[in-house]
Amino acid sequence: MKVTLEKGSGVRGEMHLPGRKQLFCLLWTIILLSHWVHGQHCIWYGECGNSTKIPEKKLNCNYTGPPIPLPDQEGQDLLKDLCPGLVYGDNRVCCDTQQLKTLKNNIQIPLQFLGRCPACFFNFMTLFCELTCSPRQSDFINSTDFSAFNKSTTNVYSVTYYISLTFANAMYNACSDVQAPSTNVKALSTLCGREASQCTPTNWIQYMFDINNGQVPFAINPNFTDVPIGGMTPMNNETFNCTQSLDDGSGPCSCQDCSAACGPTPVVPPVPPPWTILGLDAMTVIMWCSYIAFLMIFLGAVLGAWCYRRRMVTSEYGPILDSNQSHSINSDGTDFVGDATCCETLGERFENCLRVLFSSWGSMCVRHPLTVILTSVVLVSICSAGLTYMRITTSPVELWSSPSSRARQEKDYFDQHFGPFFRTEQLIITTPVNASFIFSPTSGGPDIHFSSILNITLLHQVLDLQTEITNLTAEYKGETVTLKDICLSPLAPYNDNCTILSVLNYYQNSHEILDREIADEFLVYFDYHTHFMYCVSSPTALDDTSPMHEACMGTFGGPVFPWLALGGYEGTAYNNATALVITFPVNNYLNDTEKLGKALAWEKVFIDFVKNYDNPNLTISFSAERSIEDEIDRESNSDVTTIVISYVIMFVYISLALGHINSFRTVLVDSKISLGIAGILIVLSSVACSLGIFSYIGIPLTLIVIEVIPFLVLAVGVDNIFIIVQTYQRDERMPEEELHQQIGRILGEVAPSMFLSSFSETVAFFLGALSSMPAVRTFSLFAGLAVFIDFLLQISCFVSLLGLDIKRQEVAVFVGMLSFSIAVVNKVEIGLDQKLSMPDDSYMLDYFGNLSEYLHTGAPVYFVVEDGHDYKTIEGQNAVCGGVGCNNNSLVQQIYTASLLTNYTKISNVPSSWLDDYFDWVKPQSSCCRYYNYTGAFCNASVVDKTCVHCRHMTTTGKQRPNGTEFMHFLPWFLSDIPNIKCGKGGHAAYSTAVDLIENNTDVGATYFMSYHSILKTSSDFIDALKMARELTDNITQAIGPQNKTYSVFPYSVFYVFYEQYLTIIYDTAFNLGVSLVAIFVVSTVLLGFELWSAVLVSFTIAMILVNMFGVMWLWDISLNAVSLVNLVMCCGISVEFCSHIVRAFSVSTKSSRVDRAEEALAHMGSSVFSGITLTKFGGILILALSKSQIFQIFYFRMYLSIVLLGAAHGLIFLPVLLSYAGPSANKAKVMAARNRFVGTEREQLIY
């Protein structure tokens, strides 16, 4: 029998074997030999010609012989490092040393991204090692095309690689979760040529082997099958899943890089169900029941009292009818002496002391008016002179965040160690043009819809706009300032291009690249569409793998992530974006006013330019860092006219209301214009004195102080003016009583009431200064002093002017309101919508609206590890890092876990980790960390120099993480390394500011790990984000375990200092209002003559007004924040005016019954309160509704109107009724003293 061995077997010849037995043995031997020979068959060996596709890369030489032992030690070492699975015997393989070097160079980028997960990288290297060097290549690789190299040798130009689908799936599964820390995305987004979520086992391998990807010099066509095809057996080597340890001792992948290693997915804590009763809001049900119960009890009590009085009480006229003797109510005053208690006697004596003191003072002021007025003017002038030292705080940080607050201290720490957060200039661009279109890829696949804003004509127009902005210049102190002078350039000084986060950076901000295309006369194969689709999938790519070979990385050397540059799309359908977002980050400066001034000057030019930019095809909303502060200043200036008109209206009313106008002809005589002017001047003088005194001390003013305090002091001051003037107008001068004695007596009667209200307000405001909120504290200090100075000027200067001027010429409803307000008090929204801080016509309103509508990510959040953590030890590294061997509860791992629950934690991305990237950068397998052998200086990976050697040796120790001094030796090199095509892990761009090196670069101080918040739209979103970030860092601090150490981990984002106040706003509100009420109660108790029950009623009524204010806030959509809290504190003060005068008049009344005393108090004081506060304020408040400022419309017009109406209703309706039912009994000592004072005068009251 003749047996011929085929060419493919590698053996040729023929044999003659006699006999069947021998033939069978021969066939068996041939089969075994065939398998052995076939397994040792190569398809290439060595490198020959250059690739026509990528000329700088080599093609392999065609070779069909057996594998060959590696000839040198270098090759054997490389084989051991790269492909340890092929190390066996004399290392017979199908590649030479040069091919191994090429393999090492080619896997540098994958190594840097996938090396974090040993199992993933092992499987990945298996795929390429089997392709490059396997001694049994011919089992699963078939050469399909060749090209000539020389006369005797050909190049392999195309192969088919048969890969087991099982292997492909296993490799993909092990790598699918691996993170790229510096970019906050998955590694496959960079290595798969598309978004990681769209990557599959097959298209990943197809992309890596695609001859058009810019990396592969010849065609490799993968064929995925689990069964042999055409005599080819698919490569199906052993794989490891990401939870397994490798044979070389490498541990399993971390949870961050392997979701299977994480255990159960964290579950969001259930939202506490609302408190309900019978399916209804519990507070509403409780308050309704309470109100109904009150009505039943109240009506029952009234009915019972009526029945009792009808049966038991005789006519009050009985004693009079039975006697002919005249009865003076004063005649039997001595009968009460034994009934007066010690406390009543003490109260009467204290009241009498105040009366005598103020009577004497008033008499003196009228007798010496010029002296008093001139002295007042001098003192006011001296105090007001402090206004020359006045500083106004407009900085939102200084206004709303206390220097001692946690957020402020953390901001200061961040600024000092890493520099202040950069300034942001941003455009959001949409189009009214309907120019959407369908793109049909020539490479196959479904049609792709592109939105109008991505039309190339509009992109050119946007690029023109962007270019004009980058070319803007400003003048600052005679210097020309350009964007390059102030912009953020992460690769400076090597690359001074400004960071511009714009989709046009995918085209290198070039019209030529945007227009570039590869086409023939029939079809367009590659153009801006294909480049866009590639870049949004792989924004870190340096080559789009098309024949154009354009980069996606921006001109500034960093990636432009689509979720930062596009808006208005769903999921990852970036092609459907309806908005372009262009962001110009600008450097911020902590203590360099010169550089900050340049930035402010350029921003002003930027704002003016965009305001005046006109393109009918583009709709632009924009913001600069200075925009909010500018608009607040403009808003304040624009409201000056509104405020002036408001005060003019109140002045006119005061002048007319203080007089008794008999006819139009005598209006100038009858009206009290001079007193009206004096009253306004006294208010302004008291405010000026307060501002001046605190300016002397160095306490800065705020806009709230300037806008609110005059209103407050006018409310208090006008009320007191009306009380003095109207009491005088109702009074009749006694016989032989001179004017100064009459006014002194009147002042003795009313000044204690004025002193009660003013001193209560002053103490309440000064105690309000205990608040930690700067705006509330500053307001309280200025308001307390202004109110007290106003009182002093009224009882001195105004009394003197009054003397000169004279010489010239029902309950159930309220309980229902209270019940309703209590039911909704917990429903008042917390926070301040930033749109409300802008004027109605502000360009920022459009920007804020588009910000919420189009943006897909929130503000960056930095997780800061304070100075003190030891990164040089394995334990310290494991507590922070997120790679192999790191703790399951490490800092990076906890942030990663939080990012899985975005809706709950408000963390949207895994953190960028300088530590993990540093470990990848310093690996000996990587070409990143090298140094010049002779000088010891750092050698960048892009440098080709034989004297550059690896930082660490390929030994067991060298492959481990660096620690101790070695850790610090290479870290500065990492932080200064510029990323490039050979080493994408260089840390200069991403981490140059993230690590604070201390002690001459021998230790690590403070560091941060950056992530992003999810998109935050409402105040509650911002508050929840801050709260959850702090909870997260508290857990991290505890997990790191800094026992007996002072450092901790804290989160920092630019908005924290503004929203921290809302974490404690409920406590601050309760504290400030509670302290104010306590102060009012204590002062009222003392100044009402130690009548405890009267003070209780005053405090209770004011508390009702405050609770009802919360009901109004809920009904009128007024949120609780620092502005509304200031107004609530002011509400306390104004409410004292509505209540204290009525209660004191009730207290000193000598009438016999509560009803009569309440009537007398209302008759004598009610008109002054009504005309002095209610009507005076009403006209001025209505003008505030016309303000352009939304803050004025909502927090001043609405709240002031509510304060006045609620105060008037409670003070003039509810309180008299309450006093008639539950008022304190008459102070017998006061009644006796009053009767004795009027014995024998015309005022002695007789009852017959």
Automatic annotation (TrEMBL):
GO terms for biological process: cholesterol homeostasis; cholesterol metabolic process; cholesterol transport; intestinal cholesterol absorption. GO terms for molecular function: cholesterol binding. Keywords: Cholesterol metabolism, Disulfide bond, Glycoprotein, Lipid metabolism, Lipid transport, Membrane, Signal, Steroid metabolism, Sterol metabolism, Transmembrane, Transmembrane helix, Transport. SUPFAM superfamilies: Multidrug efflux transporter AcrB transmembrane domain. GO terms for cellular component: endomembrane system; plasma membrane. Residues 639-804 form the SSD domain. It is a multi-pass membrane protein. Residues 1-39 form the signal peptide. Gene3D superfamilies: Multidrug efflux transporter AcrB transmembrane domain (1.20.1640.10). The keyword Signal applies. InterPro entries: HMGCR/SNAP/NPC1-like_SSD (IPR053958), NPC1_MLD (IPR053956), NPC1_N (IPR032190), SSD (IPR000731). The chain crosses the membrane at residues 285-308, 370-390, 640-661, 673-697, 703-725, 746-767, 779-804, 1070-1090, 1097-1116, 1122-1140, 1161-1187, 1199-1222. Belongs to the patched family. This is Niemann-Pick disease, type C1. The lineage of its organism: Eukaryota, Metazoa, Chordata, Craniata, Vertebrata.
